[in-house]
Amino acid sequence: MKKRLYQSMIELGNGKTSSAALKRFAQSAISRKAIPGFINAYKIELGDIERPSGQYTSLHDFFTRSLKADARPVADAELVSPVDGRLEIHGAIQRDSQFMVKGIDYSLTELLGSGQMAKRYANGQYAILYLSPADYHRIHSPIDGEVVKQYMLGERSYPVNRLGLTYGKSPISGNRRLITELDTPHGRVLVVKVGAMYVNSIELTEFGNEWQKGQEVAYFSFGSTVALFFEGGHLQFDSKIHDGDRVKVGEPLAYMV
């Protein structure tokens, strides 16, 4: 009952008109007045941002803010966090290419739109990282690698917060998403950027074929999620991080076994 009610309420407000209106407002000069309230509401730390808060021209400009060059040092680990956010869950992918988030089974085949690609990651591992509206929203490469495939799937997006993951319509595999497959010295890695409700936008900033660990590659225009999938059992997650922990760009996620 809760799930049906939640989905019905989201559908009522998740139309093209409302999404477009919010996007226009966030990118308008008048939205600049909302920045101080946004900072206070989400208790955003300003010490790391590239520009003083008064220099941003719109709410969108502030939301997609860059950080100072030395704000996120990159750890000496084979795999680091690509974003500032919360590690929702990490673990092993099931043999049938299924993975679980908030008690819901997801199909890697559905997420990727390809059963052949999904088979490659059977017996691999995954990690789901959620970005709240307060977080730094630029995405960095989690590992050194070569881009072998990159494509977009999905049209609409639903909330990817805890309520959305619990009661939504499979938001991770159903939302608009930009999928990048990397060939790395430790096997193939998938970096899946998942859009969020309303401002359903994922923008690339790196168009080359070589990604370097810690390098900025894209940004979100609203709170969202990054899902990582690793081929085989070559990587072992850092024992110091647990589901629910906060992580920052460049902090260690996994090491080579």
From TrEMBL:
<dbReference type="GO" id="GO:0006646">
    <property type="term" value="P:phosphatidylethanolamine biosynthetic process"/>
</dbReference>
<dbReference type="GO" id="GO:0004609">
    <property type="term" value="F:phosphatidylserine decarboxylase activity"/>
</dbReference>
<keyword id="KW-1208">Phospholipid metabolism</keyword>
<dbReference type="Pfam" id="PF02666">
    <property type="entry name" value="PS_Dcarbxylase"/>
</dbReference>
<dbReference type="InterPro" id="IPR033177">
    <property type="entry name" value="PSD-B"/>
</dbReference>
<dbReference type="InterPro" id="IPR003817">
    <property type="entry name" value="PS_Dcarbxylase"/>
</dbReference>
<keyword id="KW-0210">Decarboxylase</keyword>
<keyword id="KW-0865">Zymogen</keyword>
<comment type="pathway">
    <text>Lipid metabolism.</text>
</comment>
<keyword id="KW-0444">Lipid biosynthesis</keyword>
<keyword id="KW-0670">Pyruvate</keyword>
<keyword id="KW-0443">Lipid metabolism</keyword>
<protein>
    <recommendedName>
        <fullName>phosphatidylserine decarboxylase</fullName>
        <ecNumber>4.1.1.65</ecNumber>
    </recommendedName>
</protein>
<keyword id="KW-0456">Lyase</keyword>
<keyword id="KW-0594">Phospholipid biosynthesis</keyword>
<comment type="pathway">
    <text>Phospholipid metabolism; phosphatidylethanolamine biosynthesis.</text>
</comment>
